[in-house]
Automatic annotation (TrEMBL):
GO biological process, one term: fatty acid beta-oxidation
Species: Sphingobium chlorophenolicum L-1
Keyword Lipid metabolism applies: yes
Summary of subunit composition and partner proteins: Monomer.
Protein localization: Peroxisome
EC number: 5.1.2.3
Keyword Nucleus in record: no
Protein name: 3-hydroxybutyryl-CoA epimerase
Broad EC category: isomerase
Pathway linked to the protein: Lipid metabolism; fatty acid beta-oxidation
Database matches in Pfam families: 3HCDH (PF00725), 3HCDH_N (PF02737), ECH_1 (PF00378)
Record GO terms (molecular function): (3S)-3-hydroxyacyl-CoA dehydrogenase (NAD+) activity; 3-hydroxybutyryl-CoA epimerase activity; enoyl-CoA hydratase activity; NAD+ binding
Length: 690
């Protein structure tokens, strides 16, 4: 029987089966909640029914509250009211879990009296990733099952646990052996036959008792995670709710949880993190191409260059089980590169993050060569050689003669014009950019660069490939620095100028760190290496960075850059670098003055937003949210600030415009507002509407 469009109700003997089917992920929308509530009432009123099974169709059990309903007026039954109906049912309810029971989905399962799961299922409370806390009793019930310490870990990391681990923790009562529905019905029958009680997690206290009188658990947890949680509001709110399980009754704890949930839900951090969640999924959708554009098979990959970048790129494919041929000019460099890759795998295995036997399996997928001809049978060839147009053009000219027709020819350039590179071939339609970020086997971002000629098949294949190798692919246009590095260049320009005008690198870094970046601008430069992209042949002491390079101060690796470093890489502001800055400013005729933190903040951030707007206006990015994803996943923009364009929208574009005009009057054309900002501000719109 259909209860409504998304829930059905069937009776098999003494068992009522309530099935939700609300694609794609069975989010607990108002229709789903209403349907379940109606079905439970029906079962309670049906004398032939002794117990109920709550199960989902489709790819997963409930994936949580329906995030799209947040901020809208609540519709009854709310999730919490639905939970009361289930928990207080006078007949046992058995939750039958497959796929992922997440957030409100797991919280609903936790008010069932018993839980059964397929072995491949996963359970988790990922609300923290959305800047929220589990707000349907998760912070109060989970500790009552798994104990305080595990609950702290699970709720503040948001990481799911597999069904087997969930069973060990007592989170699920049984693992299904065969068909979940049949096993759940059989389980429900046993509950009835054995007259098992209506177990309520809320009544359990034994795990809480174990932690009583041990306040150090919380103190230690906060201390151990201080760095990870810095800036985020949700983790501390969650810890306080878990603490409350020891200090308050269950009902009081629920009131407290609600209060803290509401605080987070209305905070801009959660809005930002929810924006990032949806933005990431939007980025995967390519606009303007036919839905049936075919993808090309990628069974074998070639990588040219076995340096840091090439090696990291190759690892991505080996990790995904795709064979790779790595080509280097000289055997020695090839051996060194392959040795570094093996070393990376071995250290991962040593840390327990990979099986020892997988090291050889993955190395077995990598074939080294010093002959470009060995790339003839590759479906995709990625060039990661020195960042120089002539060098890259030469590589592509050679490739053109070697690669099979239809192969994708990709460059990993960070700044160069890919049309110029493609022009070295007779097949520019086969050329695209795949801009990986260092370390390429770790960083999640992949800018997929489409030139004016890149074929639609290659665009969709590259975007799909990003997913295959666990990256977040963002499609960008072919313009200087694409999206990420172009905005970085805008930040560079301001940061460099600010230190000449009177700021210090450390004050600039502190302002950015306080904003939420994992590290400051100059700290990042020192880490990456000041000599990256520096050409010692043409060096001309044209800026502070060049001079530092000429002095052999290349950053952390030489124990000196903008900062000095000791043997443990501990940094201190460098008086030498400061002298270089002051001398250079004097040479340029710049009179140094006091620069406030506010000025640093505004000049750097509004310059970035303005550059983002230009990028959007020029169509280099298809959506404002794509720019946000690039900066959040590739450049450490704090997730709880949603990305530069989200941040701009949060300020309000009229405010952004006014700031830019003031900055333009004082500091010139870097701040000339993008016409897009002028237009959107006049129309009362935001970047999200562009
Ligand atoms: C919560 O539960 C709060 C409670 O504690 C308290 C309440 C009082 N809502 O990721 P996919 C959409 S907070 C609405 O590509 P996958 C998603 O946008 C929630 N929509 O699939 C996408 O739409 P589109 C806690 C949602 O197979 C489509 O579904 N739960 C929701 O790679 C497919 O998604 C979470 O945080 C949602 N909850 O991964 C879980 N979830 O096709 C969030 C997804 O238009 N979800 N959509 O782009 C996930 O982690 C993954 O979606 C999941 C599936 C692992 C489930």
């Amino acid at each position: 029987m259909k209860v409504n469009d998304v829930v059905t109700y069937e009776v098999e003997g003494p068992i009522a089966v309530i099935t939700a089917h609300s694609p794609p992920v069975n989010a607990l929308s108002s229709a789903v909640r209403q349907g379940i509530a109606g079905a439970v009432q029906t079962a309670l009123g049906d004398g032939s029914v002794g117990a109920m099974v709550l199960i989902c169709e489709g790819r997963t059990f409930f994936a949580g509250a329906d995030i799209t309903e947040f901020g809208k007026p609540p519709v009854e039954p709310t999730l919490r009211n639905l939970q009361l109906i289930v928990e207080n049912a006078t007949k046992p309810v058995i939750a039958a879990i497959h796929g992922t029971a997440l957030g409100g989905g797991l919280e609903l399962a936790l008010v069932a009296h018993y839980r059964i799961a397929v072995p491949s299922a996963k359970c988790g409370l990922p609300e923290v990733k959305l800047g929220l806390l589990p707000g349907a009793g998760g912070t109060q019930r989970l500790p009552r099952i798994v104990g305080i310490e595990k609950a702290l870990d699970l709720t503040t990391s948001g990481a799911p646990v597999g069904a087997r681990a969930a069973k060990e923790m007592g989170l699920v009562d049984e693992l299904a052996q065969g068909d979940l529905r049949a096993d759940a019905i059989a389980f429900a029958r046993r509950v009835l036959e054995e007259k098992r009680p209506l177990l309520k997690v809320r009544d359990r206290t034994e795990k809480l008792d174990e932690a009583r009188g041990k306040p150090e658990i919380f103190a230690n947890f906060r201390k151990a995670n201080a760095r990870k949680f810095r800036g985020f509001k949700a983790p501390e709110h969650i810890i306080r709710c878990v603490e409350a399980t020891l200090e308050k009754s269950f009902d009081e704890g629920m009131v407290y949880e609600r209060q803290l949930f509401n605080e987070l839900q209305s905070d801009s951090q959660s809005a930002a993190q929810r924006h990032v969640f949806f933005a990431e999924r939007q980025a995967a959708k390519v606009l303007g191409l036919a839905a049936d554009t075919p993808t090309l098979p990628i069974a074998k990959v070639g990588v040219i260059g076995a340096g840091t970048m090439g090696g990291g790129i190759a690892m991505n494919f080996a990790n995904a089980g795709i064979p790779v041929t790595i080509v280097e000019a000289k055997q020695e460099a090839l051996d060194r590169g392959l040795g570094i890759i093996r070393g990376n795998y071995e250290s991962t295995a040593k840390k327990g993050r990979m099986k020892a036997e997988d090291v050889d399996t993955r190395m077995g997928l990598l074939t080294g060569s010093v002959a470009m001809e060995d790339l003839a049978d590759c479906d995709l060839i990625i060039e990661a050689v020195f960042e120089n147009l002539d060098v890259k053009r030469e590589v592509f000219g050679t490739l053109d003669a070697i690669a099979r027709p239809g192969a994708i020819l990709a460059t990993n350039t960070s700044y160069l014009d890919i049309d110029d590179i493609a022009a070295a071939t007779e097949r520019p339609e086969s050329v695209c950019g795949l801009h990986f970020f260092s370390p390429a086997n770790v960083m999640k971002l992949l800018e997929v660069v489409r030139t004016k000629d890149t074929s639609p098949e290659i665009v969709v294949t590259a975007m799909k490939l990003a997913k295959t190798i666990g990256k977040i692919g963002v499609l960008v246009g072919n313009g200087f620095g694409f999206v990420g590095n172009r905005i970085l260049a805008a930040r560079n320009a301001q940061a460099d100028r600010l230190v000449l005008e009177g700021a210090t690198p450390w004050t600039v870094d502190r302002v950015l760190y306080d904003f939420g970046f994992a590290m400051g601008h100059f700290q990042m430069r020192d880490l990456v290496g000041l000599d990256v992209g520096w050409n010692r042949e043409t060096t001309s002491s044209a800026n502070v960075r060049e001079i530092l390079n000429e002095m052999g101060r290349h950053g952390q690796k030489t124990k000196g850059g903008y900062y000095d470093y000791d043997d443990n890489r501990k940094q201190t502001p460098s008086p030498i670098a400061m002298q270089v800055i002051e001398d250079f400013a004097a040479k340029q005729g710049i009179e140094r003055r006091a620069v406030s933190d506010d000025e640093i903040h505004d000049r750097i951030l509004f310059a970035m937003v303005n550059e983002g707007a230009r990028i959007l206006d020029e169509g280099i990015a298809a959506r404002a949210s794509d720019i946000d994803i690039v900066w959040v996943t590739g450049y450490g923009w704090p997730k709880y600030r949603g990305g530069p364009m989200f941040w701009g929208d949060l300020q309000g574009l009229p405010t952004v415009l006014e700031k830019l005009k003031t900055l333009e009057a004082a500091h010139g054309e870097a701040f000339t507002p993008s016409p897009l900002i002028e237009r959107l501000a006049a129309e009362g719109k935001g970047f999200r509407d562009a």
